[in-house]
Amino acid sequence: VTVARQLTLRHDDDAVEIVRRHLGHLVCDPAAAASPLFPGGQTAADQALSGFRVGGYARRRSNVWPDEARGASRLSPYIRHGLLQLGRVWDAVGDGPAADVGKFRDELLWQEYARHLYARVGSRTAQPLRSLPATGSWTYSQEPLPTDMACLDHVATELTETGWLVNQTRMWVASQWTVRSGHDWRAGEDWMFRHLLDGSRAANRLGWQWTIGAGTGQPYGFSRWQVERRAPSWCASCALAAACPIEAWPTTGSAVTIDGPAEIRHLPSDAEALERVAGPTSPAGDGQPDAVWITAESLGDADPALAAWPDLPVIFVFDEPLLERLQLSTKRLVFLTECLVDLAVRRNVTAVIGDPAEVLSGRSLATTFAPVPGWRRVSAAAAQLRIHPWPWLVQPTTGTVASFSAWARATRAPVAPRNAKR
Ligand SMILES: Cc1cc2nc3c(=O)[nH]c(=O)nc-3n(C[C@H](O)[C@H](O)[C@H](O)COP(=O)(O)OP(=O)(O)OC[C@H]3O[C@@H](n4cnc5c(N)ncnc54)[C@H](O)[C@@H]3O)c2cc1C
């Protein structure tokens, strides 16, 4: 039995200091600090959204370097932790150029698709879903990325220092790690997850499965060509410029189609099966809650349970046994703590460090359903729960989640017509 420690947060608390003092035993880099790019909290999330201009997004989204050439929104840490709900971001770009709005909204749908897939398949997304390489498996290895290639060195430094990468360089990492080096993607996925401020098992695993071909049968090949196109100055400064190890296209071999979990293609069409995956569609449960329990999935002011119970105190649990296993970066825990400190400007917030099942045991709480396996496990410990619906962008159905385009058809997700496949 772990002994839970409780912190009442104040709006002027220093998040880095809190992490050093109370959570330092749970991180992979105890001496590190906050991300220089992403302050946590609703206030910072609102500023990031109001500062984003979607114009030029379609053309510039995949640019890597220089920084000014990039077109990605950098909203992902706020979206991942529910400070910006997908519906709000969707509406916020409505008056931009049609092609950019269509492309950007499609990416929001990829996030929604990742959540639907994970809600349905859960921890089995750690297994290849649809295909394997011809060799049958990858060796599990913690071997880091090569440091003598300027491109990968820049990317690894950016990830560990800022906690964020553009989509393009995430694909470079995943492809180098697995398609070229033959290492098991799960070690690479764990490494990226440890550092990404937007790291979610839902989107990270989907991204890895998609890049290495485990989700589609078609691995993404990484070579010098992409670096010259997306970050031209990196090759010029590389010690291996005249002997580039990725000059040629990688041999990807052919993938073997596998069955994967049956529920990818459909769920039993009964309301109970769907509710287990998607949560309730209207507030459920009973009892008079004495606090609102918030989770890392939904830390924003618009969290449905927070909004429904404006006068109740708020509790957040740092899941000590889980964090001990994950060894996340300091930046990630500082980001979460900043979110709580910012919330403490408006609400009475207590953070507890311990085992959530023990901390919540026997309590009467209000909360928002979260479409992740951990929520189901932990929420079962509370004696009484008032459960508020998850704010889906597209309501889940019992239809297929086997691929983005099949899912989009099954849910009638509003994909921009020319982007239905990619
Ligand atoms: C190997 C790999 C790992 C990834 N891991 C994660 C992860 O852990 N968490 C995560 O949120 N995204 C992940 N992605 C998806 C994507 O790279 C990031 O969402 C995006 O780069 C975040 O930057 P942005 O906010 O500027 O994105 P933008 O391009 O501005 O897109 C806006 C939003 O759309 C969503 N989005 C964009 N692309 C994708 C995508 N391919 N899949 C799912 N959602 C998307 C994100 O919420 C993003 O914030 C991963 C992609 C790959 C290839």
What does this structure look like?
The chain is an alpha/beta fold and 422 residues long. Helix content is 41%, strand content 9%. The chain is built from 19 helices and eight strands. The protein has helices at 15-23, 42-51, 57-60, 76-80, 86-92, 98-121, 150-162, 167-180, 185-195, 201-212, 224-230, 232-236, 271-278, 304-308, 320-326, 330-343, 356-360, 373-379, 404-411, and strands at residues 5-8, 131-133, 255-257, 291-294, 314-319, 349-354, 364-368, 384-388. A six-stranded mixed beta sheet has the order 1-6-5-4-7-8. Strands 2-3 form a two-stranded antiparallel sheet. α18 (373-379) links the parallel β7 (364-368) and β8 (384-388). α8 (167-180) packs across α10 (201-212). It is globular. The mean pLDDT is 93. Bound molecules: flavin-adenine dinucleotide. Flavin-adenine dinucleotide is lined by residues 61, 72-76, 79-80, 107-108, 110-111, 114, 166-167, 170-171, 174, 196, 198-200, 203-204, 206-208, 211.
